[in-house]
Amino acid sequence: MSTIRVVSGVATGPTPMSSYDAALADANIHNYNLVAVSSVVPTDADVEFVGTAPDLGPAGERLTVVEARATTAGPGRVSAGLGWTTGPGPGLFYEAAGETDAETVRERVTAGLDAGRDLREWTFTDERVEVASTEADAGEYTTALVVAAYGESEPII
Questions:
Q1: Which structural domain range is residue 133 located in?
Q2: What percent of the chain has pLDDT over 70?
Q3: Name one GO biological process term (predicted).
Q4: Of 47, 61, 98, 132, which is most buried, counting CB atoms within 10 Å of its CB?
């Protein structure tokens, strides 16, 4: 299994979708068709925070992701967080997002990771949480996101 890269982005735009697209561009994953999966880290995967994605393949291909995102119309604050816990076997991602501050989102992610570990008889040795948070100005839409991108992109057709 290849590396799962965790990236983040924040951006504004004149519509909710344009701010989302711009936040994806800030993370450099805007040229892929994102396919969301539930939050299990495969046993042989390495997870690393890279901030901005490298080239993951040709535009238009499918990219498997776990995504935390929130969009708001300003004024206000928007935050998204993604955490992961791993060990010698499989691991977990947990995401939270909303029109709230970074610390609240971090607490929700940590609580989710704790609950997920309680459901499984796996060994967990490491944990990390990344949060993207920004102020949204009046008259703009703002998106914050943190995304785990599984490996490289793949042809969609």
A1: 3-150
A2: 99
A3: L-arginine catabolic process
A4: 132
Yes or no: say if 5 and 34 are a contact pair by the CB < 8 Å rule: no
Check pLDDT > 70 for residue 1. no
Tell me the pLDDT tens digit for each residue of 21-45: 999 999 999 999 999 999 999 999 9
For residue 51, is it within any domain?
yes
* Number of folded domains that form the chain: 1
Average pLDDT value for the chain: 96
How far apart are alpha carbons 49 and 144 in whole angstroms? 16
Tokens representing 44?
Answer: 């042989």
For the CA atoms of 128, 41, 154, 146, the dihedral, rounded to the nearest 10 degrees, stands at -30
Among residues 100, 108, 107, the alpha carbon closest in space to that of 79 is found at 100
Burial class (CB in 10 A: 0-12, 13-18, 19+), 110: middle
The reported pLDDT for the residue numbered 2 is: 83
**Is 156 within a domain?**
no
Whole-prediction pTM value?
0.96
CATH number, residue 55: 3.50.20.10
